[in-house]
Design goal:
The complex is a heterodimer of chains A (259) and B (541). Chain A is an all-alpha fold and 259 residues long. Helices cover 53% and strands 0% of the residues of chain A. The N and C termini of chain A lie far apart (95 Å). Chain B is mainly α. In chain B, helix 1 runs antiparallel to helix 16, helix 2 runs antiparallel to helix 5 and helix 6 crosses helix 14. The chains are: A mainly alpha (259), B mainly alpha (541). Chains A and B meet through helix 1 and helix 2 of A and helix 8, helix 9 and helix 17 of B.
């Protein structure tokens, strides 16, 4: 500290500036360039580190497009289309569905879901997702490929008009159905899938095939099914244990059907 | 007897009255949300209490201590009457009126925004205007400190400014600059919202501006304790200050580095680029330097004292120190808490490690350990040291004072160590209640109960403090000698001119602020908009 009188201040400025410059180079240039997502040149890296969003014309667009989970976005227009179908016309088209989903929308085998009584918007969304390849299934993608918007709406109207299964006296609902698990950020199933409430596009699950429900929950958990627009089902399914997924499918699936 | 003693006493009494009331609220909060309470407390009352606790203990109590201690240092170390005592009283009245306005607004239930007042939560205008008045009152003090030092220097050319005054004025300048961030936030964003002139607010910009104040304000609270470390403690321990220049270096480093690092409070905020987060991490790491210098110098000074008192061997000097003197005991306890809290702080300030503890109870534990622990215990010691000079009565029972300090230390550890642990388990901070019937929280329950017990130990200690201070104003006046400060081992060596004034360092502080905050703030004002509707606090029916 036995420095000439006039040098200490200048030294302090120099040291501080040096620290700032080194920190700047590390924080704005070196670290951003190491990141896996690093794209573009040096200037892009600096801008990202400063918090500037720059549409840079990089392959970001195409990457995003393939990641879009579904093209069905519920707004006034799409909801109107989904419920605009004609059940009469739909009944003719549905002859092609009867083999797997049953003559009255109640599937004879556990592997295929019941469609009777599902809301039109729920059926519309799945058929559209099959058509656009957002939901993957070799049979259904083939079936849906040739359908127009109108025909999808007609089919949806037809299945919505059929009567669903009747609920039996049921076991008490699991906590996950009624309250979810707030600590694990799991919303209650019933808020979107009934019996408490319902969201556009989300099917009520009462009376669905337990086997089918299990398969879907597992597929969401593994990411094999990914047509939930905000990852809401994938996030929930991932947070559930395998036994919880089974228990939920069993509870929702425990229903008798008229036939 | 000290000049301006009525002024200093007024500050200390208002400070400790505010403090005692707030500790009652703090103990209640800890109990109300612990499993001991046996059910959820009234959440609205809880947040009211938290806001009052934080507002009083962050904005009013330490400000008044810094002001009162500053005046005492100014008149005793410069050995002449305070210039501008009328302004000093005006500042005191502003703080008093401002504190009353804010706390009444909180009590009325219209201002439960927590003391960080992050928008879009919006309190009653009374709350913010009260805070502004209190801060403006403290600016009176800051300006008076600078003015008194300058006047003294002009009349004593070539003489070195006493270290206690140098540290106090550094703190005054730090506070003047530190308060600017929140002042801008209140002026441009919050008051228009509170008065209803605007309906939306840029929350990103508000948080950026608040972070300008949020971290450096901690050093404004801390520096009075450091002034005591350097100038009162070595003398009370019976020794000399190891290095006067080291003290000055620490103070100017705080001045330069304390402020442009606040973005480490915004590591989880998306509107700040990660480059700036890194930059602030680097300078936050640098601010550990003046603290390490202080710990080194203080320890060396205590070793000098211990050896002068006959201590031998590697650590024998520790036992030879007069631990029955309150300020020496407080220093030892303070250093333990500073060490533990500082180690935790290294986790908070790390951009990558922070994510494990961000917004958990760990953070609450950290700042209570550092501020309410290591700093506030020195406030007690400062009061005990000044009291005979202010009242003319000796401190009644130093034993009781030592007991009070021990209780504060034990209580603070019992409060904050479990908080750190439950924070690591993921317990969020700022919660009015936890669902103790939830099995996932079972492991946290006993820890939270234990820390609530610590809260009542702290309350007991606070009551003892008031008892000691009141008792020591009774009985026969014996008078006290002049308040003096430790002489340094290097008093005779030359002092660089830059360490006898603060101009260089204020310039550096402003320049570094421009580098570290210029772009993020400009971005908020001119480029990005994170605007959302206001959320006014109202009392639920």
């Amino acid at each position: 500290m036995n420095m000439p009188r006039d040098r200490l201040g200048a030294t302090a400025w120099a040291v501080t500036a040096l620290v700032a410059v080194v920190a700047f180079v590390i924080g704005f240039v070196w670290l951003p360039s190491l990141q896996a997502s690093a794209q573009g040149g040096l200037w892009d890296a600096i801008c990202r580190a400063a918090g500037i969003y720059r549409p840079s014309g990089l392959p970001l667009k195409t990457t995003l497009a393939t990641q879009v989970p579904t093209t069905v976005v519920w707004d006034v227009k799409s909801l109107r289309i989904a419920v605009s179908g004609d059940a009469q016309r739909g009944s003719t088209l549905a002859a092609a569905c009867a083999g797997c989903h049953g003559a009255r929308g109640i599937s004879p085998t556990d592997a295929f879901p019941n469609l009777a009584g599902l809301p039109a918007d729920a059926i519309y969304k799945q058929l559209d997702d099959y058509r656009t390849g957002k939901r993957e299934n070799p049979i259904m993608q083939g079936m849906a490929a040739s359908l127009s918007d109108d025909k999808i709406a007609d089919l949806a109207a037809y299945f919505a008009a059929l009567s669903a299964g009747q609920s039996d006296a049921k076991a008490a609902a699991p906590a996950l159905v009624v309250t979810g698990s707030p600590l694990r950020s799991i919303a209650p199933c019933a808020a979107c899938h009934g019996p408490l409430g319902r969201k556009e596009g989300a099917p009520p699950l009462h009376g669905q095939k337990a086997t089918y429900l299990k398969a879907q929950l597992d597929a969401f958990a593994a990411g094999a099914r990914h047509n939930d627009i905000n990852q809401q089902m994938r996030a929930v399914a991932r947070a559930l244990s395998a036994s919880e997924r089974d228990a939920l499918a069993d509870w929702y699936g425990d229903v008798h059907h008229p036939n | 007897m000290l000049a301006s003693r009525r002024l200093v006493l007024a500050h200390f009494w208002l400070a400790f009255a505010t403090f005692a009331g707030s500790v009652v609220l703090g103990a209640w909060q800890m109990w109300a949300r612990s499993p001991l309470h046996g059910g959820p407390a009234d959440a609205e009352l809880y947040y009211r209490a938290v806001t009052a606790h934080g507002t009083a203990l962050a904005y009013v109590f330490p400000t008044l201590i810094a002001m009162g201690f500053g005046y005492a240092v100014c008149v005793s170390a410069l050995d002449r009457p305070l210039r501008g005592e009328g302004f000093a009283w005006a500042g005191f009245v502003l703080v008093l009126v401002g504190a009353l306005m804010s706390l009444l607004a909180v009590a009325a239930g219209s201002s439960s925004v927590l003391y960080t007042f992050y928008p879009p939560l919006t309190a009653s205008p009374f709350y913010y205007v009260g805070i502004v008045l209190a801060v403006v009152g403290s600016w009176f003090w800051a300006v008076l400190m600078v003015y008194n030092m300058r006047a003294w220097k002009q009349e004593h050319p070539g003489e070195r400014v006493p270290l206690a005054v140098f540290g106090t004025v550094a703190n005054a300048l730090l506070w003047l600059w530190t308060a600017v961030g929140a002042a801008l936030e209140i002026l441009f964003l919050i008051l228009p919202l509170a008065f209803g002139w605007t309906t939306t607010v840029d929350v990103g910009l508000a948080r950026t501006l608040f972070s300008w104040t949020l971290h450096a304000i901690v050093y404004f609270w801390l520096l009075p304790a450091y002034v005591a470390f350097y100038t009162l403690v070595p003398q009370a321990a019976g020794g000399r200050l190891y290095s006067d220049r080291m003290g000055r270096t620490a103070f100017v480093l705080f001045l330069v580095l304390a402020m442009p690092i606040g973005i480490h409070h915004l590591f989880a905020d998306p509107h700040i680029g990660e480059g700036f987060k890194f930059l602030h991490t680097v300078f936050t790491a640098a601010v550990a330097i003046p603290t390490l210098l202080t710990v080194f110098t203080l320890t060396a000074s205590l070793e000098v004292a211990g050896r002068l008192r006959g201590g031998r061997g590697l650590l024998g000097w520790v036992g030879a120190l007069p631990w029955d003197r309150p300020i020496v005991l407080a220093t030892g306890l303070s250093l333990v808490m500073l060490g533990l809290g500082g180690a935790g702080g290294l986790i908070n300030m790390s951009y990558t490690l922070d994510s494990t503890v961000h917004n958990t109870q760990w953070v609450t534990g950290h700042f209570h350990l550092i501020f309410a622990g290591s700093v506030v215990i020195m406030y007690f010691a400062i009061a005990y040291e000044l009291w005979p000079h202010l009242t003319g009565h000796p401190l009644r029972s130093t034993k009781l004072a030592c007991l009070q300090l021990w209780l504060w230390f034990i209580g603070m550890l019992v409060v904050t160590l479990p908080w750190h642990l439950v924070g690591l388990m993921g317990q969020p901070r700022r919660m009015a209640y936890y669902d103790w019937s939830e099995p996932g929280l079972a492991a946290q329950g006993p820890l939270v109960s234990a820390s609530a017990v610590g809260g009542f130990v702290l309350l007991l200690s606070a009551v003892l403090l008031i008892v000691i201070l009141v008792r020591s104003r009774r009985g026969e006046k014996v008078g006290a000698g002049a308040l003096t400060y430790a002489r340094a081992l290097d008093d005779g060596s030359p002092l660089p001119r830059a360490l006898n004034g603060l101009a260089v360092w204020v310039g550096l502080m402003i320049a570094l602020t421009a580098v570290n905050y210029g772009y993020p703030i400009a971005q908020g004002f001119f480029l990005q908009h994170n605007t959302v509707p206001a959320q006014t606090v109202t009392i639920s029916p």
